[in-house]
Design a protein that fits this description.
The complex is a heterotrimer. By secondary structure, chain A is an alpha/beta fold. Chain A has 11 helices and 13 strands. Classes of the chains: A alpha/beta, B mainly alpha, C alpha/beta. The B-C interface holds B 4, 8, 11, 14, 186-188, 190-198, 201, 206, 209-210, 292, 295 and C 58, 61-63, 83-84, 86-88, 90-92, 94-96, 99-105, 110, 113-114, 117-118, 146-147, 149-152, 155, 160, 163, 167. Chain A: Residues 8-256 form the ABC transporter domain.
Chain lengths: 323, 296, 331
Amino acid sequence: MTDTILDVRGLSVDIATAGGVLHAVRDISLKVERGKTLCVVGESGCGKSMTSLAIMDLLPKGARRSAAALSFAGEDLSRAPGKRFNALRGNRMAMIFQEPMTALNPAYTIGDQLAEPYRLHRGASAAQARDRAVYLLDKVGIASPAERLGQYPHQLSGGLRQRVMIAMALMCEPELLIADEPTTALDVTIQAQILRLLADLQKEFGVAIMLITHDLGVVARIADRVAVMYAGQVVEEGPAAALFSDPRHPYTRGLLDCIPVPGRTARGGRLGAIPGVVPSLVGEVHGCSFRDRCPHARPVCAEDPPAREVDGHRWRCILEKAA
Amino acid sequence: MSLALSSPAAQPSRTARLLRRLRGQHAFLVGAGLLVLIALLAVFAPLLAPHDPYLQNLAQRTIPPVWYAKGSWVHPLGTDQLGRDYLSRLLYGARISLLIGVSVVIIAGLIGTTMGLLAGYFGGRMDMAMTFIVTTRLSLPVILVALAVVAMVGGSLWIVILVLGLLKWDRFAVVMRSATQQVRSQDYVAAARAAGASTAHIVLREVLPNIAPQLIVVATLEAASAILLEAALSFLGLGVQPPLPSWGLMISEAKAYMFFSFWLIAIPGSALALLIFAINLTGDGLRDVISPDGRG
Amino acid sequence: MNALLTADALTRSFEVGQGMFRRRRTLHAVNGVSLDIRKGEVLAIVGESGCGKSTLARMLLGLLPPSAGAITLEGRNIRDLGHKTVARRVQPVFQDPYSSLNPRRTIASIVALPLEVHGVGTAEERRRKVLDILDRVGLPQRFADRYPRELSGGQRQRVAIARALVMNPEIVICDEPTSALDVSVQSQILNLLMDLQKELGLTYVFISHNLAVVEHIATRVAVMYLGRVVELADTDSLFRNPRHPYTQALLASVLTPEPGLGLPDTHLGVAFPDPLNPPPGCSFHPRCPRRFEPCDKVTPALLRDAGGENAVACHLYPPSPANASLPKTKN
């Protein structure tokens, strides 16, 4: 089954600031296949979180979305009213946030919070919702789930809270799960467990996952496809294996060189670095936004770089391949 | 995330940025402008006052202000029940109000800030002791204690200042305590300690500058409250004593005449309201302009 | 071994539970940790949140007095040396460069703080020293009169490093110095730290949860779990042959950017222990896939192996000369 659950074309997010319009996301296109995982990776300020919020229609005040197409399961939502998103959110598309403590309401029990979306969207009875909550808490690896239902978020550890978040997201059997840095706040051993859990649940329920992260290690292990974002644009996108074994964009390559890999990078040796800072995205932005930091930059980079594609591996650069 | 996108290079100077932030703050500008105006009037009262504020002239009692038919430019705001020039008394009264506001804030601010800093910085027993003292203080109604003290030792300007100063430090202590706790947990305080800096150095040079914004805001609010309390005490006859031209006292003295010479009560009353309004606007505006997240 | 800084049976407990009427409980953040920090090495302390690594760092810096045990600097207890002497020789770099620089001071004034405190030189000499050190950490001198908010995260961390180095300390205690930074900035800061170590002959205590970074920069590694050191080994041995099951799980959890390897199974249980109420015996046993009979009763001691260099606290490696030949399992 390779049909597309989410197809975003020409998505832009503009934020009004005191200094002018900030082009946080600039004309990006993404596709998520049913049952597959797309990872959106990039550093802080690259627009990855804005992208996910724009897709869920959860942008903060002052931020404006525009898109050529934003189709979810074949339905174009680019001009849909907020009400339509309310009906989909928490139901057919669900979201997991970075900080489970702030995403869970401390005033309600785990059980109440799990049941709420199910009863709202499915019109289920309290007993049905409870049964489903117990079933899913068990699925996400929480021991004695029935007792957990009466507990409050502060009584759980960070790892358990994130499991509860995942269970909550799965309550209505969503077709798409958007996870924004779901493991960043967690310890490394817990991170591995949560990611495994996500992968297992995906196999079992066939949910498509769009995972937003800054961690290329996470991406490499879980992604089917990867989109690398820089300064509001997707600079490279492709199948995970191809992107890691044969990165085409100088930014992707630079990022990979920055990461020490035990057994591969020489211990104590110099790590790769990307000099300079991310350009300002306020006002008009032209040309390749990476050119100020790129070792291969040429005068021609001041113009918009060409979009290239080989076997579904797309990138935007004047070069076929960064040496 | 929008912060990370704006390039950190090429920023305007600190003053320029402060001025730009101020430009949008209309309320603050109005408040601060009024406050400066009142302060100037008070400072230059001896030059501006047309008459001696204490000079009585029983032949010229309760002359109405100039906008009444019987008014004249000799006494632009008329005269009071003892024939004293009302404008001159009003101008001198501003001095008393501001003196009260500033002095009470200095005394209360010193006590409260010291307590808040110590409790917030050292925590533990120091904090428990301070919390106890603040709770005790909060259980005393300011106006009743002030009344009792003044009734016992007699009223005077300095007694009023002292009593209010020694009573009104509670908000300073509470706000400074929580602000200090917040700053204390920052790594730059740990870094200063790790550099070998003394506690005095850390409290005065690392902590204090970072809690100054909150201090200023509390100070303005407390100044307004102190001025009002003085007016209330004076109105009750237990504050500033005649013939000093305190606004509260002026209102008190005028109350017997309010049905025949309404301006006697309206003029100092409006002046008081205007001053409090100006101080509160300034305080609110300052909070926005120099709040830590604004980083002015 | 020429130990520069030594922690001897260091313990730090906190009373938890505020208020007059609530029951107070004791949290043993650090529980009997002994470590030698040798001249010129990079000793990494790794572990997850709540393992006590930051508390240990604060004690080594003299910011937090130990509840029990002692810290000695070249054989002398730092309690007797005095705060300023320790400050001259041991300096910190903290994790969050947004909280570690006073927002109301200029960069020059932040970096000059240690010089001022110790009364080094005249104002002019201090200024020159500050400019020198800014240059050394790769910051343009024009930054001297700016404020922290005008700098990016990486630039701020360079300022924090400059402040740590301006007094020429021997030991720098880096508490997660790159965790708050973006990947591309992290590598620059790591390169800088390695360069400075070589140039200035520094000794680092490098606290981190990122094992890939630790493998890259450290010469020796101490693994902490719930306030105790559970394994101590040179970097090579630890990464090639991790012995404690917790170390093995930590290593397995490192997600390197290598697609196709899939997600590791750490074989750890879900239950994370309550630090206020640690499990009896080995505090790792509820999560340990290889626990056996003595684990929930007897706390294993940190025992040196036959070579005397590396040590592990686990019942799988009993205190006999035979333990070197014990079969080693790898996940």
